[in-house]
Structures are given as C-alpha cells and as structure tokens.
TrEMBL record:
Residues 1-17 form the signal peptide. This is Oidioi.mRNA.OKI2018_I69.chr1.g3751.t1.cds. The keyword Oxidoreductase does not apply. Residues 14-145 form the C1q domain. Pfam families: C1q (PF00386). It comes from the Eukaryota. Keywords: Secreted, Signal. It is found in: Secreted.
C-alpha cells in the first residue's frame, strides 16, 4: 500500500507542477561556440519555482528547477550541439547550403540545477519573428526522486 501511495502522490505532483518552455530567435545568431540566446519567448512556465522562469533568455540556458525526466529539443536551419552542463548530449546539422532544417532532441533524467543549452558549432542560426524559424523547447515528463 505504501508503494501505491508513493506512486499516486508522484502522479498527482506531475499534474500539479508543470515545467515547460519554448523560445525562438527574433534575429539571426552567429557567435560560434557560445550559447544561442533564444529571445522570443512563447512559453516559459515553472510551477516548481513560480518566481523563476524555466528558461533564461539572457543566458540562453534552461536550469532544471526539480529532479525529473525532461524532453528538450532544438530545431532550425543550423549546426548545433545540445548541451547538458558542458557535455554534448545531441547534435544536429543540415551541413549543406540548401537551408534545410534539422533538429536534435533528448530525453534526460536531470537533477535540480543541471543546465541545458544550445551551442552554435558552425555557421549561422537563422532567426526571424514572428516566423520562429529556430527554436529551443523543453518540458518535464515526470518528476523523479
């Protein structure tokens, strides 16, 4: 019964506390090996810490507000690395001149305070608002202990 109660409380906490973000580029970005600053915020919800946004557009970083399983994604015409702290989690590139779109995504079990960000490896990330050509998004699938 105790195990059932623990699982039920965990499921209820998912419904109660939501963490999600989607941020896009309002203009193109060319700073290689730096965090891409997705500045056009579409969604930025953090019920875990209501006074702190899930994604910080000033730093270009998402800091996990709670232990949990998260899905994060980056898409656009680009050559990028999806970073967990300072480690590459996934990479995406169209690696050609045809301006095709690519994406990279990951499902990660994060500890509170771990950082997810997107680093431009090569070239230019095309931005434009309101078209949202390039985006960085994520959300918590489930909390973990």
């Amino acid at each position: 019964m105790k195990d059932f109660t623990s699982r039920l409380l965990l499921i209820l906490s998912v419904a109660a506390a939501q963490v999600s973000f989607m941020a896009c580029l309002s203009k193109s970005f060319v700073e290689r090996d730096d965090a891409i600053l997705f500045d056009d915020i579409v969604t930025n919800q953090n019920d875990e810490q209501a006074d702190e946004p899930a994604y910080n557009p000033t730093t270009g970083r998402f800091i996990a507000p709670a232990n949990g399983t998260y899905r994060v994604e980056n898409s656009g015409p680009l050559f990028v690395h999806l970073m967990r702290n300072e480690d590459i989690v996934a990479s995406g590139t169209n690696h050609d001149d045809k301006f095709e779109t690519t994406s990279c995504n990951a499902v990660l079990i994060l500890k509170k305070g771990e950082i997810i960000w997107v680093r431009l490896k090569h070239g230019i990330v095309f931005g434009g608002s309101p078209s949202h050509y390039s985006a960085f998004s994520g959300f918590m699938l489930a909390p973990t202990s």
